[in-house]
Amino acid sequence: MMCSRDSTVKVFIRFRPTDKFAHEFIECLPDQQTLRVQSRKGFRKGKTISPLSSWLFRLNGVMENVSQEDIYHRVARSVVQEAFSGYNGTIMCFGQTGAGKTYTMTGAAETYAQRGIIPRAIQEVFQEAEHRADYSFSVHLSFLEIYNETLLDLLSSIKPGKTSKSGILTVVEEPGGGVSVKGLSLHRVHNEEEALNLLFEGEMNRIIGEHALNKQSSRSHCIFTIHIESRSHTLSDAKYITSKLNLVDLAGSERLSKTGSEGQVQTEAMYINKSLSFLEQVILALADRHREHQLSTLRFASRMKCVQTKPSVNEHIDPVVQKLEKEIKFLKENLSRFNTLTSQVTNEMLSGTEVAEVRSQVQRYLSGSLDEIPIVSVPQIQEVFEQFKKVLLEQQEKFQERLSSKSIRDETAMNTAPSAIEGSVGEVEGNGYGLGLAKSSQRHLQPKAKGRKEKQTSRKEGPSCLSAENPSSHNEQPQNTNAPNTLAQESLLQAPEEELTRNHEINRILKENKSVLYERTTQLRRLSTLINDTKRNIDRIASELRQYREQRQSRGEFVSPEAEPVLEEEELYLVMQLKDLKSRYRRAYDDMTSTKAEVSYCQHLVNQCRTRLLTEFESWYNESFLLPTEVLSVLKDGVLRPGHIGVDKALSLMEDDPRGLHQPDAETTSAASFYNAYKRTLQRRGSRAVSQSPESAKGSRTRIKVSPLLSDEVNTH
Ligand SMILES: Nc1ncnc2c1ncn2[C@@H]1O[C@H](COP(=O)(O)OP(=O)(O)OP(=O)(O)O)[C@@H](O)[C@H]1O
């Protein structure tokens, strides 16, 4: 019998060759899968044996006079193959004593051609492992004997092996289902021969009982298990597959009355029958003890065939390898990002298409349809900032347009009631963002309490003035008709103005630093060319001098009256030239050293400016776009939109709402405390983040940091 990957148990019948085969009772039909068994009609102890005279048993194969090799190929081979795909398999022999179970499973040890399923399976396992070069395999063996309901380790005498210290074997349930024998020794084998050694050693240890039917009868059940573990060389190391091949040689079923057993042998026979009977019950139902013995075996076999199985691949994940793989993946990603950035640190320009793509990304990011802008290179990051700046400037322009139209209306209102807004609205500024607003210096210096009072005054008088002068103006911007709200919103416009000015300033410094850097780098290049040229000249002159001196020595030297060598004019000229070159070389070298230091310093400044710009942007973004719901609801009806004002300013606006809809109640105060605390936390993170590299700012909005420059707290009065 065998269990295989498809969901049914396959059952085969093998007849042991014998001269006494009862052909008149047992007939194999031509399909080689069906057996017809006839029963003798008669009486025993006055009872009819059976009202039926024959039975048909349908099996997966009926094999008569087939070789050991054929048996292996028809019954066992596919089970062994499937073990390599991670499926457990069981091949089990059932039959009465002397039927040929041990012969089929183990074979005749002395004849190679008659070796049974187990040695052939071992051979196939190692051959298959050799063929599968993409995998590494480890094979372990265990050999269990069940004798008189006692578990025995047939390989316990072999060392080394994983085995329990107590030597007591117990059947335990495995966490993932199935059972295993705790304490059974497992032996690693590296080749066919090592495995066969263990098989034969175990066979030797098997208890053989003297028996009346068969002198070499197996009095125990034996399970020889091949444990296979395979890991792919090419796929993930975290995953590996295990499988077990259980090769079972059951003890022979027998009738005690027939064997004439006594004492120990009788006890053995009882246990054997009991365990086989349990096995049968487990498979389907109790055996019919009133039938001829072969009939019982055939019944058992045909019932076994009905058993449905649910095979599954034993795939495991090694948690340590999995963790390491994750780490490797993470590090590889970081490395590749780093490599991309460092390889593109040069000031390459983006193409028109790339710029357009960045612009589209920024717009989608701002509209919320894009979660994050992936970092690709330094020029791309710069372009992202550039595009953000453009969007900001566009917003500013739109504001200015709205403000100018509104300030004209406010001016008209002022003319009718100047005292009402005195101090709130100053002279018209001639340029920039101050159109129609009080001078920024005035706005900055106004204490908050005063500002509120003024706003209250305006609140009282503004609307009447406007309606008196130009009632139609209500219709132009119905959502913005009350002056106090307008004034509060106007004062908030400082935020983007200040932001912009500050960013312009940083940008200006960045540009200056970059131009100095460029100049110094050019100088450095010039100096290094000069040094190289000078060095070449020094080498040339030194060689000429050497040649000249060699010639002079060969033709004899001029000496002075004091017997000192006299330098000829040509040699003197060369010496002077060499001296001059050496001093030029030294000067250039010194210049180059100091220029190098300057370049490095300038580079540092440029980097700082870039980081600062990034931080400012993050700060602006957080302040402007991550507005709490309460603030958004206030802004909903006004001309202001997220991005125009900061959280603190927006909360001030809530206080000034004349409709009383957003008077600072307990909830608002609590919200303000919450945002103050949140902001402080962000600031702490932000101050740490300023020193970090720009790429750390990549990603989702939650990762954006707040600049330490914006340290005002939300005011709740
Ligand atoms: N197909 C066969 N061809 C040749 N000899 C066989 C065949 N089957 C069994 N035999 C021989 O019959 C004898 C009994 O076989 P075997 O020991 O395998 O029976 P068994 O079913 O294992 O019995 P037990 O349950 O008592 O252990 C052995 O000598 C064996 O060599």
From TrEMBL:
This is Kinesin-like protein. ATP binds at residues 95-102. GO terms for molecular function: ATP binding; microtubule binding; microtubule motor activity. GO terms for cellular component: microtubule. Its main location: cytoplasm. Gene3D superfamilies: Kinesin motor domain. Residues 432-483, 685-717 are annotated as: Disordered. Residues 524-551 form a coiled coil. PANTHER family: CENTROMERE PROTEIN E, KINESIN FAMILY MEMBER 5A. Residues 441-453 have a biased composition (Basic residues). The keyword Phosphoprotein applies. Belongs to the TRAFAC class myosin-kinesin ATPase superfamily. Kinesin family.
